[in-house]
Design goal:
The structure is a homodimer.
Chain A lengths: L9 H9 L7 E5 L12 E2 L14 E4 L13 E9 L13 E5 L11 E4 L3 E5 L2 E4 L21 E3 L7 H9 L4 E5 L3 E6 L4 E2 L10 E2 L2 H12 L2 E7 L4 H14 L2 E5 L10 H8 L2 E4 L4 E2 L5 E5 L2 E6 L3 H19 L9 E6 L10 E11 L2 E6 L16 E5 L11 E6 L8 H9 L11
Helix pairs in contact in A: 3-6
Chain lengths: ~425, ~425
C-alpha cells in the first residue's frame, strides 16, 4: 500500500515553517572578521560627520568679509600666517587679510569662515597671496553633521555586512562588532546507497554529494553547518541519532528517507519522537516529498535525497529560516522577472523550480534552464544562478514569455510578504486549489 | 608649483595593470572548506554517471520480450524473485516471466533490460504481479555515462566554487580539492589625520575606515588582506616600510599619499624604490589620482585617501588582478545595462563611476545613485550594489536614459576583452582623446 499524501502549496508550506522561526543572540567579532556577518544591533553614527568644520579642498582659509571688493581688476592681498596639514590643528586665529594654507580634510581654523581653492589663488611672494574673486561666507566648508548626524541609524540590525558597512563600522569606532550568532544546522544523511567522498565506488552505490552541497548552501545563507554522519541501518539507532543531534543544534536537516518507500525511516522517526509534521508533501517539482516537522519548537527539515530536489528544498525553506535567525529583514529569495529563453513545453500540475541561468542582454533579463531538469542529475546544479518558477497548471511555456526567477547568489533577499505576494500573482493554470 | 599629470583612460590603465598579472599556485583544502574558493585545476568527471545502469523510478526490473503480448485485455503474470534496495545488488539473473522489485537509483539486475513503474503494476498475490502493457527494451533505465562521460571537464580551473560545484566535487571523490592559493595583499594606510578604529576622536582627525573597507573588498574578491599599519611621519621610515612590505606580499595597496600635496610621500617613494610608474592620473571620478607602479614585477596600487575614490579604485583595478591571480576567466566587473532612475545633470570631462543601487522593476533594470557622490562621504558606500558608469563629456544625463552599470556583488565577472569593449561602446561626449 502506498500512503496517500495531500500536497500543500509552496507558499503555505513556507508560512507554516516561519511560525517556528528562532532568533540568534549577539556575539562580538573584531572588525576585521565582520565582513559577511549579519549585524546583531543597529549600526549607529556615534558622532556627527564631519566631527568638525573641515575643508573639502586644498586651499586657503580666510574671512569672507575681506573678499567683498575682490575682482579680476581689483585683486586683494592676503598674508599667509600658517598652514594646516590634514590631522593637525591651527592654534592661532585668522584675522583681517590673513590666510591659512589648508589641506583637504583639515579643520577650519578659528576666525576663518570660508575656503578659497588653491587653483583660484596666485602666490605673489613668500607668504603672500592674491585673490581675484569674492568668496561667500561658508563657501567650501563641510560643516559639522552635514553628512551624518550623531544617532542616525545607518544600517539596521540584521544587515549583511558588506565592505561599505565595514567602512561605516570603522568610522564610528566599532573595533568589536555586534553580530548575530550563526544558527547551528545539523545535517544527517540517509540512504544505504551512499558512500562517503573518500570511498572507492562500488556497484550499486554513489557518493554522498548532498551533504557537502548543503553544507555550502548553509554557509552561503549565513549558517554554520555541522555534519553528524550517515544513518545506520537499524531503526532504533537512527531514532537515537536524530534525537541526540536535535539537542545539539538549532535546526536539523536530513537528506533522503522521506518518501514512502520501504527504506524510508523518517516518517516513523517523526512519529516516535512525537514531532508535529507540518507537511509531508508540497505541490512542487522537484522536491514534492520535502517534509518539515517540529519537535520542542525546533524545526526538522526532511529534504529529498535527490540532489536537485535537495538543493531546491534547502533554498526555499532552510535559507529563509537561517536569514530570519540572523534578524535579516529580507530573509527570502529575491524575485525578478525575465524573458524565457527557450521553450519548456511539458506542463505539470505542480509549480516547478527549474535550475536556470539568468543572463543580461542589453537591459533585458533572459533566463535559460541549465541542462535537463531531472532530479537525479547533479551536473546541472553547478551552472545555475536562479530558480526559474514555472507555475503549475495544464500549459507548457514558450520562449519569449515573461517568467519569474528567484535569485540564488544575491545577498539582498526579499521580505516574506513580498515573496508570498509573488505567488499570488503567479498565473497558475489551475484554480486556487492544488489538485 | 603643482605638478601637471597627464590622465589616461580607465581602459588603458586597466590594460597596463594586466601586463603585470601574477598567478597563484595550487593548494589543497578539504571539501568542507572548498566553498567560495577558486578551482586550482579543472574539475573532471572521474567516472561515468551513472556508474552502472540504474533505475530512475521505483518499479520492477523485467525482460522486455516477456511483455510483447501484454495489454489491458491480456495481462501477463510475472513471478517476483527478489528485491533490490538502493545501494544493494541483486545476485541472481532475471529469467523468463520473472521480475525483481527495484528502488529508485538501484542497479538493474542481470537479465533484465527494462523497468516498469510501480504504479503500472498490479500485485495479484504474494510474489506475483500482473502487467497490462508492453514495455520497450531499455525503457526506464538510466544507462552508464548517460548523464556525464568519464573525463568530461565539468568546471574549468579558476571557477568560483559554489554549492553545485561542491556537489560535483563530492560525486567525483575530491576529498581534497585543488584550489588556487590566495594572493597576499599588503595594505599600508597613509595620512597623519588618521586615528585607528579604537582611538577616541580628536579635533582635526578622523578614524581610518579605508583600511578595513579594503580588507573586506579584498576578501570579497578572493584575496587575503594583510594590514601593515600606518605610515610614520618620517620619509625614510615610510620608504623602508614600503620596501619591506613589498617583499612579503604579492601585491601592495597604499591608501592616500598619491596626490601632489605637501604631505604626499608616495611619488617620491616610487622614485627612490626605482619603481616604474604605469600611470598617476586616470580620467575618472572619483579616484583620478589613482596610481599604479611596478617594482620587480610586483604591482603597487596607490589608491586615493578618499573613501569612495579608494573603493572605486579597488574594484576597478585590484579586484580584477586578484581574480586573475586565482586563474578566473572572468576577472573583471560584469557590466549590465539599466535605465537611469533620476537626473544627473552635471557633466564632467572624466568618466564617472557613481556608487548606485540597481533595482528590478518588472523585467527592467533601474539604477539610482545612492546619496551624494562626494568622494568624502562614507555613508553612501553601504547601499551601493553597482557602479553607475557615466561617460565623460559635455552632457549631463536624464532620467530614463540607458546607462551602463558594473555589478559589485556578482561572483560571475566578465572577461577583460568584454570589459574593454564596453568602454569602446560608451557614448563619450568628447572625441577619442581625453582632454
Amino acid at each position: 500500500m502506498i500512503e496517500k499524501r495531500k500536497p500543500i502549496k509552496v507558499e503555505q508550506a513556507l508560512k507554516r515553517v516561519f511560525d517556528y522561526a528562532r532568533y540568534g543572540s549577539i556575539e562580538y567579532v573584531s572588525i576585521e572578521d565582520s565582513y559577511g556577518r549579519y549585524l546583531g544591533e543597529d549600526l549607529v553614527a556615534t558622532h556627527d560627520v564631519p566631527f568638525f568644520n573641515r575643508s573639502p579642498y586644498d586651499g586657503y582659509a580666510i574671512r569672507a568679509c575681506d573678499t567683498v571688493n575682490a575682482s579680476r581688476d581689483h585683486p586683494i592681498e592676503f598674508k599667509v600666517i600658517g598652514e594646516i596639514g590634514a590631522g593637525s590643528v591651527f592654534d592661532g586665529v585668522v584675522g583681517e587679510h590673513e590666510a591659512v594654507r589648508i589641506m583637504t580634510g583639515a579643520q577650519i581654523p578659528d576666525g576663518a569662515d570660508c575656503v578659497i581653492m588653491l587653483e583660484l589663488v596666485t602666490e605673489i611672494g613668500q607668504h603672500m597671496i592674491e585673490i581675484k574673486r569674492k568668496v561667500k561666507q561658508g563657501e567650501n566648508i563641510s560643516f559639522i553633521g552635514e553628512d551624518t548626524k550623531k544617532g542616525t541609524v545607518l544600517a539596521p540590525k540584521g544587515t549583511y555586512v558588506n565592505p561599505g558597512d565595514v567602512a561605516l563600522l570603522a568610522t564610528f569606532g566599532y573595533k568589536q562588532v555586534p553580530v548575530s550568532s550563526k544558527p547551528k544546522i545539523g545535517i544527517i544523511a540517509t540512504g544505504s546507497e551512499l558512500l562517503d567522498v573518500d570511498q572507492p565506488l562500488e556497484p550499486g552505490k554513489i557518493r554522498n554529494s548532498n551533504t557537502y552541497m548543503i553544507m555550502a548552501q548553509v554557509k552561503r545563507a549565513g549558517g554554520e553547518p555541522i555534519y553528524f554522519g550517515q544513518f545506520e541501518d537499524d531503526f532504533q539507532t537512527c531514532f537515537e541519532q536524530v534525537k541526540n543531534t536535535l539537542e545539539q543544534v538549532d535546526f536539523l536537516i536530513t537528506t533522503g528517507g522521506v518518501s514512502v518507500g520501504d527504506y524510508d525511516y523518517l516518517p516513523e522517526i517523526y512519529e516516535k519522537l512525537g514531532a508535529d509534521v507540518l507537511f509531508n508533501k508540497i505541490a512542487m517539482r522537484p522536491g514534492s516529498v520535502t517534509t518539515v516537522a517540529v519537535k520542542d519548537e525546533k524545526l526538522l527539515f526532511g529534504l529529498s535525497g535527490n540532489p536537485s530536489a535537495c538543493y531546491v528544498g534547502c533554498e526555499l525553506f532552510v535559507k529563509p529560516i537561517i536569514r530570519k535567525f540572523l534578524h535579516n529583514r529580507n530573509p527570502v529569495l529575491k524575485r525578478a522577472q525575465a524573458v524565457l529563453g527557450q521553450d519548456f513545453p511539458k506542463a505539470n500540475p505542480f509549480d516547478r523550480f527549474v535550475r536556470s541561468y539568468l543572463n543580461f542582454d542589453g537591459s533585458q533579463l533572459y533566463v535559460y534552464p541549465v541542462g535537463l531538469d531531472k532530479s537525479n542529475i547533479v551536473s546541472s546544479l553547478a551552472g545555475a544562478n536562479v530558480l526559474l518558477v514555472l507555475p503549475g497548471g495544464t500549459r507548457g511555456f514558450k520562449k519569449g514569455m515573461k517568467v519569474d526567477v528567484l535569485l540564488l547568489e544575491d545577498q539582498e533577499g526579499a521580505p516574506l510578504d513580498t515573496f508570498l505576494a509573488g505567488f499570488k500573482n503567479l498565473n497558475r493554470g489551475d484554480s486556487d486549489e492544488v489538485i
